[in-house]
Amino acid sequence: MKVTFARLSGSLIAILTFAIGCSVPSIVDESTLESSRSLAHSFGMRLKTELKMGLEEGGPVQAIAVCKNVAPQVASELSRQSGAKVARTSLRYRNANNAPEPWQARVLRDFDQQAANKEANAPLEYFEQEADGTIRYMKAIRTDGVCLACHGELIPPALQESLDRDYPRDLAVGYSLGDVRGAFSISWPPPDRNSGS
Ligand code: HEC
User: In whole angstroms, what is the distance from residue 39 CA to residue 88 CA?
Assistant: First the structure.
């Protein structure tokens, strides 16, 4: 009995997965890809603007607060507005809240490999639809000159002191220009199958 049931449910799952996979027209993927790109872009622009203002107004020590407070705020604001899970992540993270999930770590390792093979600053993107309907997007964030003060090889002592205070287990140092510092991650939950359809 058990075996029969297991076999039956196994094939039902296979049929369902197939049916769901086929019922998603590629146009949905395109528009979700565009929405994901646009969310990653907005997140990046907001952070750049805030970081620039923070650096101009108070210098790098004060700008740490921007990264610490503003980044999670913008991420949850964009998540609320879009319904996707919007985040930043990295293999060598400063804040453990940004540690990658296994699928994100896989993509980040792949980005590192591609970055080593491709020309500097080539855009690196990932987009995939899972069998359960989850759609995942990631876009690599490269290290540029502004980032080096807080993520580079030579961190000024006053800055290092503040970082040590806030992030005693900081992994996000020692980067060079053009390195993949991390990635924006946009994850769309599967459509709600109970919503009247
Ligand atoms: C003023 C210092 C400062 C500068 C400049 C700075 N960062 Fe950060 N960065 C931080 C801090 C602090 C965090 C941890 C934020 C948190 O607690 O979520 C962080 C976190 C991150 C994260 C999330 C993953 C992690 O390590 O926790 C990424 C990605 C990142 N920074 C990329 C950049 C990039 C790219 C630049 C340059 C455009 C940059 N940062 C410039 C201080 C800085």
Answer: 12
Give CA–CA dist 133/56, Å, rounded. Answer: 44
Residue 128 lies in a domain: yes
Query: Does residue 95 have its Cβ closer than 6 Å to ligand 1?
Result: yes
Number of domains in the chain: 1
For the record, the structure tokens of 133 come out as 């309907």
pTM of the model: 0.85
Flag whether 33 is in a domain.
yes
What is the tens place of the pLDDT at every residue in 87-105? Answer: 999 999 999 999 999 999 9
168 occurs within a structural domain: yes
Cβ-based burial of 26 (10 A; exposed 0-12, middle 13-18, buried ≥19): exposed
Q: Is 68 in the pocket of ligand 1 (CB under 6 A)?
A: yes
